[in-house]
């Protein structure tokens, strides 16, 4: 037993030593850019103070590995896609306790801006913008077994065109908590449905998700042009806290909050929105286009802020607690 304990202690000591040896501290933007533009010699990066990149070179290979910002802010960082690198304009890194202010990405050919390795925690992008080619979504990789918590993306300056999925491609076995997306303008892909959060979600938990000030340009084209205001296909997905605030779009009779349900295990509670129905007849945005069961039998926290107006759809700040869409509404 003593030998086992000693061996275990040596193993822990060796692991800790290697982990410490792999950690690199970054103090300036020049160090940051030089490190990520060069050959990576460490898997863990620690930002030791606020960094201003105004006078620093452009980051050409993207951020990757694991970065702990320790609560610091990186300002005015510039990215440029590199066609010789598989990272290109991706921010492909685990991020913790970090703020990016006024970052600019020049997109050469990538479909998406972000790629996640495993987790983001306490991450903010303020006033993110892009030049070059438009993006078609924000997160390229499937969120499979990943965790995102306390994330804020303000993407007022990001170009988004022919969007099929605004945020995540697909969500599997994942937890997304306190996620806010602000200030996006996108054009929908004319011959395909558009999902705002994800086109598919399975065995996942989405808690306190907020989409604010989203403008969706382009006209729907029947079933293929429908808008999924939250998720497309859902299976055993639990949404607790969804806030859709100031979303503008042109309506289709095929629109819904959730599209297809593959089982009756999904739950939707504490859903808030100030979408109004741009049709004269209210009640045409179902919670699910193809529910697995009689969804009216489920008890759902559903609060809307609706007032009929003319298309394209805009929003009203008036709070009306009702069952506009045939959804049972209860007080908190």
UniProtKB/TrEMBL annotation:
Keyword terms, alphabetized = Signal
Q: Does the keyword Disulfide bond apply?
A: no
Q: Does the keyword S-adenosyl-L-methionine apply?
A: no
First and last residue of the signal peptide:
1-21
InterPro entries for the chain: Pectate_lyase_5, Pectin_lyase_fold/virulence
- Tell me which domain of life the UniProt entry assigns to the organism this sequence originates from: Bacteria
The name this protein carries in UniProt is Right handed beta helix domain-containing protein
């Amino acid at each position: 037993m003593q030998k086992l304990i000693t061996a275990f202690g040596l193993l822990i000591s060796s692991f800790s030593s290697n982990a410490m040896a792999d950690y690199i501290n970054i103090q300036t933007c020049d160090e940051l850019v030089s490190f990520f533009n060069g050959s990576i010699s460490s898997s863990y990066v620690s930002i030791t103070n606020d960094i201003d990149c105004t006078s620093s070179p452009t980051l050409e290979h993207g951020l990757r590995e694991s970065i702990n910002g320790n609560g610091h802010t990186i300002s005015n960082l510039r990215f440029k896609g590199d066609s010789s690198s598989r990272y290109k304009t991706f921010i492909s890194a685990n991020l913790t306790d970090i703020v990016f202010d006024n970052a600019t990405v020049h997109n050469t050919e990538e479909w998406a801006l972000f790629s996640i390795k495993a987790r983001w925690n306490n991450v903010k992008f303020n006033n993110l913008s892009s030049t070059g080619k438009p993006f078609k979504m924000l997160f390229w990789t499937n969120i499979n077994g990943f965790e995102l918590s306390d994330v804020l993306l303000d993407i007022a300056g990001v170009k988004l065109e022919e969007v099929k999925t605004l945020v995540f491609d697909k969500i599997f076995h994942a937890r997304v908590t306190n996620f806010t997306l602000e200030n996006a303008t996108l054009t929908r892909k004319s011959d395909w449905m558009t999902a705002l959060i994800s086109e598919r979600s399975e065995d996942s938990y989405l808690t306190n998700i907020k989409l604010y000030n989203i403008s969706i340009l382009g006209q729907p084209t029947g079933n293929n042009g429908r808008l999924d205001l939250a998720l497309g296909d859902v299976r055993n997905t639990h949404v607790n806290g969804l806030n859709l605030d100031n979303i503008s779009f042109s309506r289709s009779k095929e629109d819904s909050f959730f599209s297809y349900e593959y089982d009756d295990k999904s739950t939707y509670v504490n859903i808030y929105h100030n979408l109004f129905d741009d049709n004269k007849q209210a009640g045409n945005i179902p919670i699910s286009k193809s529910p697995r069961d009689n969804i009216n039998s489920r008890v759902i926290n559903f609060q809307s802020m609706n007032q009929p107006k003319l298309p394209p759809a805009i929003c009203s700040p008036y709070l009306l607690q009702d069952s506009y869409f045939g959804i049972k509404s209860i007080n908190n």
